[in-house]
């Protein structure tokens, strides 16, 4: 089965064409600047790349261009759109309605539209991608795979905020969590690496421009760092993470900010960028630290300390830990962050091996010392495979 994987953003569109049974990726690409001028970056074959600058007024033209590129241009990898068996969509917010991936129907789209207030930037784009694919490829099954679904197993005492209870019953204000496909994939890979399916206590640190930590007990999420929105939790590329409500109110008063302006500061001007004053890219900040920039040093220390606090909290929540996992662009590549996070965690059974930690590899690996009571894994994530595999399973079941 060939699955066309789509991740529609407000002005961008990421895609892959994958066979989930073999994990073979035929093509991967990105449409940028939709509605402005339009750039398509398409990769296929043995590292071949194609870049096209073509106007894309809307997502419809972008998806049409992608399909044409897959079947007609020098980037061709299939003979016809008919070779695509199903479409798997990344869907950011499923609220409490969707605890698993589902076939896209009119009822599902209607429910996703009701959830737009919870994800006003993401859900409209996700829905648009689904509706356009239904138009351009009529009869092809579409599946929605939700970022929030994996976290729906959290107990109420973990996901509730200590606000008046009717804030939850009336408005759905609670912790939902995100990056669920990554946390699901990595935690299952860790269980396989442990060769242990029962009584597994796993902490996953998904670290990139957006970052989150999850506590996973026997394959089920019991807590995660992100909340109602992705701004809660860890300090990230441009997001502030956990900030007290009093500090936000005081900042708004002193700077004469509206709530929208304050949210803009917390989402786009804070985090690594806000502290370093240099960049939201940790690689540039690490370089700045090495060159003696103290604000860059502070940003690096804060990133590691924030992660370490959540790891400690989740060891307590899980009553121990079998494996601590690092994934995402920072988690997989920043050895110094892994070192700083694990420093002093010996009493929790987590002892990092400095040689293994600094050894570069693209493969999943154990970087704990041989004598460490718990394992420390670096596991490359594969969210697209989760989307493709869920799509394959749902469509195959319907075809029986």
TrEMBL record:
Cofactor binding summary note: Mg(2+). Can also accept Mn(2+).
Coiled-coil positions: none
Site (Transition state stabilizer): 179, 239
UniProt keywords, alphabetically: ATP-binding, Cytoplasm, Kinase, Magnesium, Metal-binding, Nucleotide-binding, Transferase
Entry keyword Transport: no
GO biological process: acetate metabolic process; acetyl-CoA biosynthetic process
Xref: InterPro entries: Ac/propionate_kinase, Aliphatic_acid_kin_short-chain, Aliphatic_acid_kinase_CS, ATPase_NBD
Gene3D superfamilies: 3.30.420.40
Involved pathway(s): Metabolic intermediate biosynthesis; acetyl-CoA biosynthesis; acetyl-CoA from acetate: step 1/2
Residues holding ATP: 14, 206-210, 281-283, 329-333
EC number(s) reported in the record: 2.7.2.1
Catalytic reactions on record: acetate + ATP = acetyl phosphate + ADP
Binding site for Mg(2+): 7, 383
CDD domains hit by this protein: ASKHA_NBD_AcK_PK (cd24010)
Cofactor dependence: Mg(2+); Mn(2+)
A GO cellular component entry from the record: cytoplasm
Pfam families associated with the record: Acetate_kinase (PF00871)
Location of the protein in the cell: Cytoplasm
Positions that bind substrate: 90
Active site: 147 (proton donor/acceptor)
Subunit and partners: Homodimer.
Similarity annotation: Belongs to the acetokinase family.
HAMAP family: Acetate_kinase (MF_00020)
Protein name (database record): Acetate kinase
């Amino acid at each position: 089965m060939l699955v066309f994987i789509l991740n529609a953003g407000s002005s961008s569109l990421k895609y892959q064409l994958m066979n989930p049974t073999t994990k073979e990726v035929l093509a991967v690409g990105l449409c940028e600047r939709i509605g402005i001028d339009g750039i398509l970056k398409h990769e296929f074959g043995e590292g071949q790349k194609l870049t096209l600058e073509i106007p894309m007024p809307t997502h419809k033209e972008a998806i049409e261009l992608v399909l044409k590129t897959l079947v007609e241009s020098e980037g061709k990898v299939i003979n016809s759109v008919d070779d695509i068996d199903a479409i798997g969509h990344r869907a950011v917010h499923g609220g409490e309605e969707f605890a698993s991936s589902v076939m896209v129907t009119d009822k599902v789209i209607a429910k996703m539209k009701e959830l737009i207030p919870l994800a006003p930037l993401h859900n409209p784009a996700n829905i648009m991608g689904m509706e356009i694919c239904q138009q351009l490829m009529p009869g092809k099954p579409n599946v929605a795979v939700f970022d929030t679904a994996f976290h729906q197993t959290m107990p109420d005492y973990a996901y509730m905020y200590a606000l008046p209870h009717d804030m939850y019953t009336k408005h759905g204000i609670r912790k939902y969590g995100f990056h669920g496909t990554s946390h699901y994939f990595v935690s299952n890979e860790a269980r396989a690496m442990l060769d242990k399916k029962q009584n597994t206590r796993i902490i996953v640190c998904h670290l990139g421009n957006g970052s989150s930590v999850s506590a996973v007990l026997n394959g089920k999420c019991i807590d995660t760092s992100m909340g109602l929105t992705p701004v809660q939790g860890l300090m990230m590329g441009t997001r502030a993470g956990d900030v007290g409500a009093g500090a936000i109110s005081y900042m708004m008063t002193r700077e004469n900010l509206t709530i929208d302006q304050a949210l803009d500061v917390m989402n786009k001007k804070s985090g690594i960028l806000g502290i370093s004053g240099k960049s939201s890219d940790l690689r540039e900040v690490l370089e700045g630290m090495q060159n003696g920039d103290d604000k860059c040093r502070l940003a690096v220390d804060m990133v590691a300390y924030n992660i370490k606090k959540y790891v400690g909290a989740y060891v307590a929540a899980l009553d121990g830990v079998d494996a601590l996992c690092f994934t995402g662009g920072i988690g997989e590549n920043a050895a110094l962050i892994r070192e700083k996070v694990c420093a002093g965690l010996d009493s929790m059974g987590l002892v990092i091996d400095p040689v293994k930690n600094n050894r570069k590899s693209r493969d999943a690996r154990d970087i704990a010392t041989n004598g460490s009571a718990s394992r420390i894994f670096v596991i490359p994530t594969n969210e697209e495979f989760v989307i493709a595999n869920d799509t394959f399973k749902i469509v195959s079941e319907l075809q029986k």
